[in-house]
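Throughout our pipeline, every protein is held as a single compact record rather than as scattered files. Such a record has a labelled line for the sequence and another for the backbone structure tokens. The remainder of this section carries one protein's record, kept here as part of the documentation:
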Amino acid sequence: MSLYHGSCHCGRIAYEVEVEAQPAIECNCSHCSRKGYLLWFVPRTALTLRTPAADMATYRFNKHVIDHHFCPVCGCAPFGFGADPKGQATAAINVRCLEGIELGTLARIPYDGRSA
């Protein structure tokens, strides 16, 4: 396991996440494709906020099961919270918001969220 530091662009939202590097999910749904998300899904307990949760704004769409958190100042969206199919709390980490990740080296797994 590695500890990664992440944040929005302006730093108002900062966090740490402990995770093994893995292929990134590249979803083609209307939201993820517009934002350019590359996602790692981890247990919610693997993410630790370093700034107040009150500093985040939240967007929900479609089935309203994922809380897409973003910074109301810079607009950057570093992660979202939801649940996996078994009901376990998860965090969807936007890998693009993590420090020290070489995006060109990441394997990508396409996901057809448009049809889900």
Remarks:
- The mean pLDDT is 94.
- DSSP finds one helix and ten strands in the chain.
